[in-house]
Amino acid sequence: MNKKVTARAHTNIALIKYWGKKNPELIIPTTSSLSLTLDQFYTDTAVVFNSNLSHDELTLNGQPITDHTLLKTSTFLDIVRQMAGINTFARIESTNHVPTAAGLASSASGFAALAAASSKAAGLNLDRQALSRLARRGSGSASRSIFGGFAEWIAGEDDLTSYAHPIQENVTMDIQMLTVVLDGSVKKIGSRQGMQHAIATSPFYDTWVAESEVDLVTMKQAIANNDFQTLGELAEHNALQMHSLNFTAKPAFTYFNGDTLNILNLVQNLRHQGIQAYATMDAGPNVKIISQSTATQVICEAIKKDFPNATVEVAKPGPGISYL
Q1: Yes or no: is domain 5-171 CATH 3.30.230.10?
Q2: Which SUPFAM superfamilies does this entry report, sorted A to Z (predicted)?
Q3: Residue 304: how many other CB atoms lie within 10 Å
C-alpha cells in the first residue's frame, strides 16, 4: 500500500468489430474481435492506495472528476480491491493522449492503464491474460490494449474464458492508420447504449454474429499471410456491416455525420486511382484510413484538399502495456 504505480496503455482500433454483449454486467461479447494497437494514442494512469483517503479521488488531464466517470472508476476499483482483499481508497491521476469519447477508443487505453496500475498498486501480480480479463470489466476493448500489434479478444462464455491474446505483437506487415478527426466532441450516444439497442432491436443482428465469425477467420489468415489488401477490404466491410446494424435498429441511429460519408467517398476515390486505402470507424463520426507507408503523402494531400480543417495523424502499430 501507499506505493504509486504508473502504467501506459495504447489505444487499439478493431479490424473485426465488437458490437454487443451477451452479458452486460461482465462485459462478455456476442462475438470475438481483432484489433491493431496504435502507437500515437495512449493513456498514462497513476494509482496509489492510501488509507488516509475517505473516498476514491480521480483527476483526468489535470482536472478533478466527480461525475459518473468517478463512479465508473470506483466500481472498477472495487473489483481490484476484492481481488486484493483490501478496502483502501485510491487516488488516480490519468492523462489521456486520445480525444475522449470521440470514437477513437479512449476507454480502451484508459481502462487497460487503470487495470495495470491499480492491480500492481494493490499488490497483485497478474499475468497478461488475467490483466486482460480485468481490463475487460472496465471496457471490453480494453482487454485488447494489454497487447501490442494485432490482438484477438476471445468472446468466451464467462469471466474466465473471455480475454484477449496476442496474434502478432511484432507486426511484419507494412500497415498504418491515418486518423481523420472531423469532430472531436463527445458523441451523443455512448457505445454501451448504442450496441445494446442494436442487439435488442435490429432484425439483422444474428446475421452480423454469423458473418463476423467468418470474417475473423479470414482476417487471421490475412495477417499470417501478410496480405494487406484482404485485411483492408475485410476491415472496411466489417465496419460498414457493424454500422448498418445501427441504421436497422428501431429507432434507427447513426454515429456518422455528413463528413463521415464524404471521407468514405474519398477513400473509394483513392482506390479507383489505384491507391490501397480502406476505411474503418468505431462508435463516432471520425474515420480511420488503413494504408501502407508508401501512400501517406498522397492520402494526406487528398484529405487536406477536401477537408482543410480536419486533423490527421499517422499511427503505426503500437506496443502493449508498460510501466513508467
Answers
A1: yes
A2: GHMP Kinase, C-terminal domain, Ribosomal protein S5 domain 2-like
A3: 12
Look-up of cell digits 435488442 = 200
pTM of the model: 0.94
As a three-state string, the secondary structure of 44-74 is EEEEEECCCCCCCEEEECCEEECCHHHHHHH
- Residues 146 and 98: their CA atoms lie apart, in Å, by 17
> pLDDT tens, 140-199?
999 999 999 999 999 999 999 999 999 999 999 999 999 888 776 666 788 889 999 999
List, as one string, the DSSP characters of 254-276.
-S--HHHHHHHHHHHHHHHTT--
Cell of 69: 466517470
Amino acid present at 83: M
31-8-96 Cα angle (round to 5): 85
**Pairing relation of β-strands 322-323 and 5-16?**
antiparallel
Domain ranges of the chain: 5-171, 176-315
Cα torsion 250, 253, 254, 258: sign:
positive
Q: Which CATH class is domain 176-315?
A: alpha beta
